[in-house]
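TL;DR need structure tokens for one chain.
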Amino acid sequence: MTPIKLIECPRDAMQGIHDLIPTEDKVLYINQLLKCGFQTLDVGSFVSPKAIPQMADTAKVLDSIDESDTELLVIIANERGALDAVKVDRVKYLGFPFSISEEFQKRNTNSTIEESLTRVESIQKLCQAHGKTLVVYISMGFGNPYGEAWHPDLATKWSERLAKEFEVKIISLSDTIGVSEPQVITDLFTTIIPELPGVEIGAHLHTTPNTWKEKVEAAYTSGCRRMDGALRGFGGCPMATDKLTGNMPMEHLISYMDEIEISTGIDNEALFQAIRMSSEIMPS
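>> reply
TL;DR here they are.
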């Protein structure tokens, strides 16, 4: 085990691209990412193809990619998607986006927060029955653009409830629209991590090109040892107000860890080839 878990998210990078990427290209790209040594790949989603057409071929992709020690995660938004996901042997993790913004939860999963709690309960039972692990993403974990009440204590409250009532063992705080600031990141992780010692607390940060390092540094020095990213910072939330806001560039995450002499276990040559491939199938 390395001191840091890096979760590469090609699903998040690709899902917002309007033109459909051929399934064969996705398979080639993910096969290259499997050579890099990431702990987990977020490879696709079992959601309505009307909502996210780019991910309609997730089952085909999963059937076609190479065997690897890298574990695979898919996103689901309800029990129906979870039922499809748990049937796939290759899938280890099911990720559910749980927003602490009522408005965003309705927009993202067509449910209220209370309805989403019911979904978490059902999905967790499916995961436990099929040997899968549920990962809950706390969407809008670092701020709220809809004028609703927001405070860091909200993320702490919901994380505690999900962990204690539903036995969720992995919770990732998500900076959905890129509004996180170092002090808020520090406050959240230094509060939640000690409160939930049996839970793996991760960071899914979005960033502009000039603010990535301060965010990563704040998370890492506050005890976060699970971080999501996407090569070249591709993808992110379309509702972000700054068009430069995207996913945390994975290559920046790796360079930061190299700088502070933390082993990532990543094969640099394989990573270089993956970056090259990403620029071919997801041109800027």
